[in-house]
Design goal:
466 residues; alpha/beta; Aspartate Aminotransferase, domain 1; Aspartate Aminotransferase, domain 2; 2 domains; globular; binds ligand PM9
């Protein structure tokens, strides 16, 4: 894009063909709804939500081409032609030789963890993700965070906060031995850090070190195209590369991948495991029939695989990715301009409010991010998600609560769904809640399930239990 073009306004590279009406519940309805939901935005009914920024997972709008693809679903139990289209897309756009479809990302995480991790193993990675870490632990492993320190500092402006601290990784290898590390888990556009990218130069350094020790890299490629956008715009060497070329280059420096196709790849359901090692693939597709379905559908319908194959090609389109990340940046800048504390720099898929600085009068044990997400909903019907103390859960060995540095509320933008006017409404609501932040009190748990507690926990306002 030329400098002249950059100075001009730009608009979404699509027009809207179908609309889904949304309702603004009244203030009284919102208050009742959040109380009934135990102050957990995951437990709200969607009918009670005005603008839904809970997640970008499975919430994107499919294109006309994808909907047309749905009509070409081949629902044969075995050997559906849509599987072969998906396999072609994975090979062409990501360069992995083999693909095992799964019902969504955690299906792939389950299989890879079971296949590669043994009791007592360590899995280093660039910050934890909830489902990924749980599957690693259930398989007997221990996740070790080797991301750079800047990732844990919401105010650091580091352009590649998802980079691995190669020193930390090297120390771990020396300490536990390479044979206790089945793979290094590298995510692109690291979710829990605020959608922060890893640079290609850092990935290459990690590759060099791990190859030296014979340790493979498994890539969480859920938001790889969004990461590629930041490489193109921030890493000089790649400024003339296409997004598609950068995506392939990232994948080339890894040995396999888990994918939740519900994000970058623009579908409402689906995922896969991909790899280059034929023997690992044979074992993975055998395990697929135990937990997901036959290896040519893995829990997806034929039509879902067709939409996914098309979604993969759309996800690397330059105009699409510019508009997608651009919308997130637009919201982030509005919120920052209002003086509200957020994670810097604004990331790939959402704006992350810094609840520790937003509600400094609350202790982390009073669940500031959970309370802030509930308050934002009451203010405007905007649904967001806690990404802090509640999401971090408990230590698998001591059962003690983990206190993460980052205590965040994620305003996650679905792809191709909301307009700039929606973003303005969201920014106004965040600002209004910030203006009366001193009035916001903390929450406490009244129900805590064993796994992934953020999904189903219930809370009460502190000092308000019967
Ligand atoms: N991410 C998200 O909202 C949905 C579930 S957790 C609230 O961000 C990464 C980086 C993800 C992810 C899901 C998964 C799991 C793996 N890696 O949800 O099982 O962001 O398809 O994918 C969610 P599935």
């Amino acid at each position: 894009m030329s400098n002249d073009e950059q100075r001009r306004s730009w608009a979404e590279p699509y027009k809207i063909k179908m609309v889904e009406p949304v309702r603004i519940p009244s203030e009284q309805e919102r208050e009742e709804a959040i109380r009934d939901a135990g102050y957990n935005t995951f437990l709200l009914q969607s009918r009670d939500v005005y603008i839904d920024l809970l997640t970008d997972s499975g919430t994107s709008a499919m294109s006309d081409q994808q909907w047309a693809g749905m009509m070409l679903g081949d629902e044969s139990y075995a050997g559906s032609r849509n599987f072969y289209h998906l396999q072609d897309a994975v090979r062409h756009f990501y360069g992995y030789d083999f693909v095992v479809p799964t019902h969504q990302g955690r299906g792939a995480e389950h299989i890879i963890s079971k296949l590669m991790i043994e009791e007592g193993d360590y899995i280093p990675g660039n910050m934890y993700f909830t489902t990924t870490k749980l599957h690693q632990e259930l398989a007997g492993g221990t996740f070790v965070d080797v991301i750079i320190d800047e990732a844990h500092d919401p105010q650091s402006e580091h352009p590649f906060k998802a980079n691995v601290d190669v020193g930390k990784l090297s120390d771990l290898i020396n300490e536990v031995g390479a044979d206790r590390i089945p793979y290094v888990s590298i995510a692109t556009a690291v979710n829990m850090a605020g959608g922060q990218p890893i640079s290609l130069s850092n990935l290459k350094e990690v590759r060099e070190l791990t190859q030296h020790h014979g340790i493979p890299i498994i890539h969480d490629m859920t938001r790889v195209a969004e990461n590629a956008y930041f490489i193109k715009t921030r890493e000089d060497e790649y400024s003339n590369w296409s997004i598609a070329e950068i995506v392939r280059e990232i994948c080339r420096h890894t040995d396999g991948a888990t994918m939740s196709a519900k994000k970058d790849a623009l579908v409402n359901i689906g995922g896969f495991l991909a790899m280059n090692d034929k023997e690992l693939f044979e074992r993975a597709r055998n395990m697929c029939v135990v937990y997901e379905g036959l290896h040519t559908y893995g829990g997806m319908a034929g039509r879902d695989m067709e939409a996914l194959a098309i979604g993969i090609s759309e996800s690397v389109d330059e105009d699409h990715i510019h508009a997608r990340v651009g919308q997130v940046q637009y919201l982030g800048e509005k919120i920052m301009d209002a003086g509200v504390p957020v994670v810097h720099p604004i990331g790939s898929h959402g704006v992350f409010l810094d609840a520790k600085r937003f509600l400094p009068h609350l202790d982390q044990d009073e669940l500031p991010a959970q309370a802030l997400a509930a308050e934002l909903y009451v203010d405007s019907g905007v649904r967001s998600m806690e990404r802090g103390f509640v999401s971090a859960g408990r230590d698998k060995d001591t059962d003690e609560n983990i206190h993460p540095e980052l205590e965040l509320v994620r305003l996650t933008i679905p792809r191709r769904v909301y307009t700039q006017a929606h973003m303005d409404v969201v920014a106004e609501s965040v600002e209004a809640v910030y203006d009366r932040r001193e009035e916001i009190g903390g929450l406490e748990f009244v129900y805590e399930p064993e796994y992934l507690r953020f999904f189903q926990s219930r809370f009460e306002k502190i000092n308000q239990q019967a």
